[in-house]
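I hope you will forgive my troubling you with a question about protein structure. The matter concerns a single protein, recorded as an amino acid sequence and a row of backbone structure tokens. Please examine both parts with care and let me know of anything in them that strikes you as inconsistent. Thank you for your consideration; the sequence and its tokens are set out here:
***
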Amino acid sequence: MKVLIVSKTHMNTGVCVGGITFDGRFVRLLDNNGHNQSDDCPFKINEAYDITFIEKQNPTPPHIEDILVQSSKYVGRLKDGISMIDFITKRNISICRGNIDNLFDKALKFTTNGSGYINSSKIPQNSVSFWIADKDLIKSIDSKGKVRYKYQTDDPWSSEIQIKYVGLQPTEDIIPKGTLLRVSLARWWSPNDVEVENRCYLQLSGWYK
């Protein structure tokens, strides 16, 4: 099956590679053992591959996109003049538009420091989404030196929402509103030292011009 690579993100081990099949399905390309791809994997954003794969057995929602790559063959790049939004629109892939609250079936909740997440109270259909935001995203650096992008809510009493950036493309100080973004939900996780339920946290994978 032909797959267009749309994202590569940092992980604790290896990289997470996201794609879209040519018939419009979100996929996450794991290796044949079900692990993240290695840092030196050949897949690059905007490249297309003919991939033989098997489905991951018993996926845990919302991470239903996982496939185990058995073999891959490079077939070319997205042609000049065809944008990512052209590619996904032609395949009837939905794009979330407007306020951040609209993302992930309106299942997002927010911590006091502005991090978005879902929990088991409402699980969206997918763990990835394309989004065209109604506001600029402003780059910031957190206390751990990690890049986050701030989204200012309409509520003057609410703190800014901060989205962790996990992509590999160079950062920009401002990502203008109206830009096509790819966002995702991290794997289920809870800290060991705090009594908090398992959550999937919102993260920014990248953007397209």
